[in-house]
Design a protein that fits this description.
By secondary structure, the protein is mostly helical. It has a domain of about 80 residues. Helices cover about 85% and strands about 0% of the residues. It has five helices and no strands. The N and C termini lie far apart (about 45 Å). It catalyses: fluoride(in) = fluoride(out). Pfam families: CRCB. One of its GO terms (molecular function) is metal ion binding. This is Fluoride-specific ion channel FluC.
């Protein structure tokens, strides 16, 4: 099936919308319950999303037959909207099974690249503003 078929894109969009709303709600709830001294909402969605994708990934590797549609709705859509850290966790975990060295490289490149891009663009944004 065409990966850009309208029905597949709709599954990703619906799941993503639901995940994004839950991410927002989690942030609001965490700020109310725990305050804003730390980004508790971000921490919560990253930990919960990583746990959820770990469970689904483990079930699928263990033989759970999850259709392409279910994966697009739940993993790409919902968890992708809830937190992209969950996708990173799944990619890193499955890569570590195949090649620990490549997993280490991916981890280092992701952290250094992401933080480096943030620092550079943050400085650029401040300079422009």
């Amino acid at each position: 099936m065409n990966p850009f078929a309208p029905q597949l894109l709709a599954l990703v969009a619906v799941g993503g919308a639901a995940g994004s709303v839950l991410r927002y709600a989690t942030g609001v709830w965490c700020a109310r319950w725990f305050g804003i001294a730390l980004p508790w909402g971000t921490l919560a969605v990253n930990v919960l999303g990583s746990g959820a994708i770990g469970l689904l990934g483990g079930l699928m590797l263990g033989g759970l037959p999850l259709s392409q549609e279910a994966r697009l709705l739940a993993i790409t859509g919902f968890l992708g909207g809830f937190t992209t850290f969950s996708a990173f966790s799944l990619d890193l975990g499955t890569l570590a099974l195949r090649s620990p060295m490549q997993a280490g490289l991916y981890l280092a490149l992701t952290l250094l690249g992401g933080l480096g891009a943030f620092a550079l663009c943050f400085a650029l944004g401040r300079a422009v503003a």
